[in-house]
Hints:
The complex is a heterodimer of chains A (427) and B (116). Chain A has 427 residues and is an all-alpha fold.
Amino acid sequence: MGDVLTGTPDSATRAAAEAVARQSYGKLVAYLASRSRDVAAAEDALSEAFASALGEWPHHGVPDKPEAWLLTVARRKVLDSGRRARTRDAAIPDLRLIAEEAASKDECMPEIPDERLALMFACAHPAIDENVRAPLMLQTILGFDAAAIASAFLVAPATMGQRLVRAKQKIKRAGIPFRLPDHADLEERLEAVLEAIYATFTEGWSDPTGTETRQRNLAEEGIWLGRLVVSLLPEEAEAQGLLALMLYAEARRAARRDAEGNYIPLAEQDTTCWDVTLIQEGEHLLRTASRRGKTGRYQLEAAIQSAHVVRRQTGRSDWIAIEGLYDVLHIMTGSPVVAINRAVAIAETRGPAAALQALDALRDDPRLKEYQPYWAAQADLLARAGRTSEAAGAYQLAVGLEPDPAIRRFLLRRCAALSSLQPSLSD
Amino acid sequence: MKYMLLIFNDEAKMKAVPKDEPNKMMPAYTAYTEAMRTAGILRGGERLQYGSNATTIRVADGKTKVLNGPYIEAKEQLAGFYLIDVADLDSALSWAARCPAASTGVVEVRPVWEMY
């Protein structure tokens, strides 16, 4: 959590306080903003409450009802700022609404209703600009500040701040509802929520500099949001599929680089470095999802990951299954990225010549001209087919397009190895 | 919340329909308007004359400038509007989707700037 959790570090109590704060932050924002739709005002009221909490809790312990404690303080802050803002009439009705919400729950009440899912649906509403949906979720559900989000998404902090402010204004002024979409819209809207979560995850996963992993690690946040959606919408197979997909990928994190920070491709990773607990959780989720009988993109991608991790036991990925899954995924999405991966799978099942033929179908797609994985796949397949000079050309292009120095080094090593490579040794 | 549904249509297409032919869209609009009235959400609405019948005016340096035609010269012109009062954007969007114009042109959904 960005801004609300900065202060003096204080071991276990502090960690406990942070854990409660993290669980509660989005819940309280969602709860306070659900009637007024004023996310910014709810955040303002809460940020001070959380600052007090993180000052007091590590010393006096976490209160019995931490959320009630936070709401009481937030309410006081709202009333204070209401007094200060008395001359600015326009703000008062919303603040009063927020204070009422806080008051109605701050004493002897049962559980605060969990409106986080409704808040996520508001953040990923089709009326909200696509590229601000994931940042908006990070801010409202997890309490990240704009600067932290900006650095993760490689956007100037001022720009990100502006986008977030505008999106919150839009929620309020356009009347974007805080509720689960109607049945007819649920699937489509959920897709946008899942997409934003996956964007959060991949933002943390792709780490171009390779040096700021910790700082920029949004992968964990994506998984956290994924878990939240699965717990709140247990019937949705695609939500489970997405969580499984993220867990499989996360399970391999430690195996992606060697001690010197060099990139290791999936096929060469040491499977003993894979996190078995995460893999097992992924497998379990995928099985549960498949029993619901409603397949989708994320379940298919997770299934592909599952077919890769069998290498742990058998020593080889289940390439036949992988090719079949990419076939279905390609029909479903028509994505050229999927087509590239499908070609890579074909190389394993039917050899590099067949794979090159499959890749050839993409030759005229203008989107791939500047897409590194296309050229890297092309290069690898050409090398394996013994067409070394063409392979070298493709490697050159791939290197030129790759921002991650570790992957650039990897591709250059592959390219250099071409000259010593005989066609017969390529497989 | 109050929302304005702004209807934009391709005027050239509408003008291409022969004059003696009955307006095929009319029954759909009548039914749509009636549905909104029955739901109790309709606050107003009109169809507008073609953009060629519009006059645009601007006052600068104390001088009034009158221009023939609509403010924005575009293929799709403002052709009418409805003012509705519903719970939230989703509700406004589902009403806008039912508007016959959503299938022939586009409907822009604008929240009204509420004055306290």
